[in-house]
From TrEMBL, chain A:
This is Branched-chain amino acid transport system permease protein. One of its GO terms (molecular function) is L-phenylalanine transmembrane transporter activity. Belongs to the binding-protein-dependent transport system permease family. LivHM subfamily. The lineage of its organism: Bacteria, Pseudomonadati, Pseudomonadota, Alphaproteobacteria, Hyphomicrobiales. It comes from Kaistia hirudinis. Keywords: Amino-acid transport, Cell inner membrane, Cell membrane, Membrane, Transmembrane, Transmembrane helix, Transport. The keyword Transmembrane applies.
UniProtKB/TrEMBL annotation, chain B:
Residues 7-239 form the ABC transporter domain. InterPro entries: AAA+_ATPase (IPR003593), ABC_transporter-like_ATP-bd (IPR003439), ABC_transporter-like_CS (IPR017871), BCAA_Transport_ATP-bd_LivF (IPR052156), P-loop_NTPase (IPR027417). CDD domains: ABC_TM1139_LivF_branched (cd03224). Keywords: Amino-acid transport, ATP-binding, Nucleotide-binding, Transport. One of its GO terms (biological process) is L-amino acid transport. Belongs to the ABC transporter superfamily. One of its GO terms (molecular function) is ATP hydrolysis activity. It holds the Pfam family ABC_tran. It comes from Kaistia hirudinis. This is Branched-chain amino acid transport system ATP-binding protein. The keyword Aminoacyl-tRNA synthetase does not apply. The keyword Phosphoprotein does not apply.
TrEMBL record, chain C:
It is found in: Cell membrane. GO terms for cellular component: plasma membrane. Keywords: Cell membrane, Membrane, Transmembrane, Transmembrane helix. Pfam families: BPD_transp_2. The lineage of its organism: Bacteria, Pseudomonadati, Pseudomonadota, Alphaproteobacteria, Hyphomicrobiales. It comes from Kaistia hirudinis. It is a multi-pass membrane protein. One of its GO terms (molecular function) is branched-chain amino acid transmembrane transporter activity. This is Branched-chain amino acid transport system permease protein. The chain crosses the membrane at residues 6-27, 34-53, 73-92, 104-130, 142-163, 199-219, 225-242, 249-271, 277-297. Its main location: membrane. It comes from the Bacteria.
Amino acid sequence: MSLQFLADGLFAGALIGLGAVGLTLTYSILRFSNFTHGDFISWGAYLTLAIVGGIAGVIAPAGRFMPFSFGWPLIVAGLLAMALTGLLALLLDSALFKPLRRTGHGIVMVIASFGASLALRALLEFLFTSEPAYFSRAIQIAVPLGLGIRVTPDQMAMMGLALVVVIAMHLLLTRTHIGRSMRAVSENPALARVVGIDVAAVIRATWLIGGALACVSGIMLGITVQIRPQMGFDLLLPLFAAAILGGIGSVWGAILGGLIVGIAEAAAVQWVGAEFRSAVAFVLLIAVLLIRPRGLFGVREG
Amino acid sequence: MSVSPVLLAEDVEAGYEPGLPIVKGASIHVGRGEIVVVLGPNGAGKSTLIKAIAGLVPVSRGHIALNGEAITHRPAHLMVRLGLAFVPQTENIFATMTIEENLQLAGHVAPAAERTSRIEAMFALFPDLANRRRLAAGRLSGGQRQMLAVARALMIEPSVLMLDEPSAGLSPKLVGEVFAKLAEIRKTGVTILLVEQNARAALAIADRAYILADGRNRHEGSAAALAADPDIAAHYLGLGGADGPMRGIAP
Amino acid sequence: MIDLVGYGAFFLVNALIFGVICLGLNLQWGQTGLFNVGVAGFVAIGAYASAILTTPETADRIGGFDWPILAGWLAAMLLAGGAAALIGLATLRLRADYLAMTTFGIAVTIQVVALNATGLTGGPFGIAFIPRPFAGLAETPIAFNAANLALTGAVTLGLFLLLEMLTRSPFGRVLRAIREDEAAAASLGKSVNFYRLQAFALGGAIMGLAGAMQAHFIGFIAPDNYLSILTFQAWAMLIVGGSGNNRGALIGAVVVWALWSLSSLAVGSFVAPAFQARAAALQIVAIGVALAAILIIRPRGLIGERAIVSRDVEAMAGEAGTD
């Protein structure tokens, strides 16, 4: 038996976990499951791609950081795209979710997000067609790590990036006022107002951060697989499963949930067949809801 | 009036839904350094009045001023910056956050240089909390939670500290402790406005009291005079004479 | 002219089948407040179940039992309703969002199974030679379409009348009471979750029936018919028609399907073939934006619910008092 599936699963899991962190944050603060989160992932990837293209068009194409497939333009573009994806989320909130928040019905926001998700995806198809795109055509040579595991340099870089982002999120939530305010609003918005927290500002910050995190997931997926308008939407079910498995609102829970979903998917690919991969998340989702609906680290759901 | 009021509410009408006021024209004023209590039967609109002052319930008529500045219709989170602190009746702490984080959140309105010293001052005032600062607030006992909620409110060094039924759900012994602490806090110069069902405990520490019924002022006067009036005691306070029940009108 | 009448009948059959889906969705969401993002999944279960059971025997996949069409329809309802009941059992006691995620999950999973369980579903190529009602008339399309329109219309009308009766029955009142104020309904001693489970399963069965009707009318199914766009269409129809209202659900289905067909027709005839994929994408964007606008501007839909339903709780409380 090869342990390669573990490495593949960990990598996919880190990616899913990162996406789930954004989802769990927006869910616990805005109180609805946002179906557009997957499409923020796709938009993040395409925005990065467009900016990389713009940089290459204006300045002569830059080299890449060996042995990785990317160079500084991708890093600059990624940072810009994170801000832009955050702004996109903010824009969608003020155009769609904010008016609906005022009228009250939480679940109507889910319908709205489902419709917006389709529109965002179709808009990407309109702008970029549904043909897959790539950040780089450079061939990556997988490095053997022992035990029969091989990993590409890009994958290692992305794992490092995921780790940095998660630690940054942890510090943000525990050490900064905006982070603590986000936790406060997620626990009790009415009390948050009493304590002097501007809930509207916290909601804006949540969309910005959630969008930026989605963009990072999109870049990770774009670098290691490919870029398609459907890429984020296809990831949505694993994201939901990871967020619920970890417990809504828990950053580390979302990461752990992501890793579990990723490894379970990789194991299914190994033993059941790649074609049923996307059913794994569903099975896990149902299992969690039946056995422990508040998830591994959830506080009080159910 | 001998002292200029810190907090003034005139002819306030407020309620959760338009056209359905719960407070129907109540007026109160609180002087600097006073403890004022609002009493009244269940459904009288006491809690709604204090929430309307805190900016949590829409005000449809009337005028509210803090230190002479009009604050009617200000959103709740801005009230805090003006020095109006409010302790809700239930769910008044962030259970998933540590005690220290609860205080840090509230202290953010203070100048950066003072935040740490204010937290230490609170731990000095509430020694029970000091040795648990890293504990999740949800693991505190009922009395300790109430203390944390008060400490959290005091973090902003408020002009007025407002409390909605601080005795709710506490044992008689804890009620005594909480009110003793409020009396101690007043000695440091904090003005206090509280809404209570437990008339006896509240009148014991209050300077003045208002009695609300059906959303309007019914009686007002010094705490001692109201407690001594047998008619009022029997009708509104559930005290019913010297050997009457300890508790307020209804749970 | 004859062509136009024929097309009109063809269009109406499709629109009414969507109407049946919307009636199911209206029972779940409009009447009971249960959110289903997996409409396409339940429609697919119905379509595949009936197709597998009624097709003639085939060498390359399981199934082909050659059952009569009516038996296929019933099986479709049973299976889709059963799937809905299972989902409901797992999630109805939890908060509403979990139902949304789970139904979304089942739609994705059904899609995966349809695409990959080749031995059962025919895989990406789907199932062909599904028996069509009035197949004997297929030589004259206008007669064939008209006969099918009569059949579909009769089924839709029957279902509509049944659901209207249900809406007015004590059962329907309990459902709306649950939707309006769950705590109040529960306090009257109604077993909230059991009522919801029944409504959700029944709604799923109706969607399954619609799937089977569509499969038999077209005669051919493939996994691509059951993508999330189908769920989106059903929701758009219900929202345009106004949820909580069976008549609105049907009118919404016809109106939205007309707009959808017309804009597809326009894209097909006026846009150069090279740009058609992009124009189709833009069409979806436009409908998505329109849906969002309706949600914000007219949350009760273009037609809206007739009765004021929040009285139901009081009415029931009154009854309970006189018991």
